Sequence to fold (252 residues):
Amino acid sequence: MDIKGKVAIVTGGGTGIGRATTLMLAERGANVVINYSRSESDAEATLADVKQRGADGMIFKADVSKDAQVREMVKKTLERFGRVDIVVNNAGTTNHVALPDLEGLKEEYWDNAFNVNVKGHFFVSRACAGELKKNKGCIVNVCSISGITGRGSSIAYCASKAAIIGLTRDLAQQWTGRKGIRVNAVAPGFFPTEMTMAYPHRYLETVVEQRVPAGRPGDLEECAAAVLFLASEAASYVTGILLPVDGGLLTT
Fold:
């Protein structure tokens, strides 16, 4: 799974699963573009850790739901590194809304989830497609187990994550044969991220105890390792799949 010399764009790469993935790609020799939309300090700290691992990188602020900002990020990446080989669409959002019924679901919550989680994945993939075709590159979309189970922080979140599964499969059908671009997705279960930290007290522990055969939340590096596999030549004959990284949650 050596990816030395390749260039990866990781959206939402400064925190959580995105940060762990960024650092693992760097450890394997890739130069990394760390996209962020909120915390520049987190992105800078991740970049410093990338350089400690002997790789090069840059940070770039962009709202992935805005096509113009995404295209500017890709442009700056090419100016700096001259190529794009790997895209990890990790940036995501949710609204932690406990509703007695769906009448209370604001349209803005729905739009925000789909704009970032679905449109953002598509915009970044589309903007990088030309370079990925040239370099026989790949895309890894970070989905969620909630896109399969339908149980998550909100109905808008679950629906948007399910949409990413469809997006992944369709892009794989269209691009693998015509462009040589592999497109896959990972579906994380419960991991210690900003999103899960916002759950009510003891909610995460209770759900893990009841539903996860592994008996614990995942380590961020365990999800990053799955992304690395799909981004590497070890997965050269793998496209259009959804790889659950969930400690067995789907078996319950």
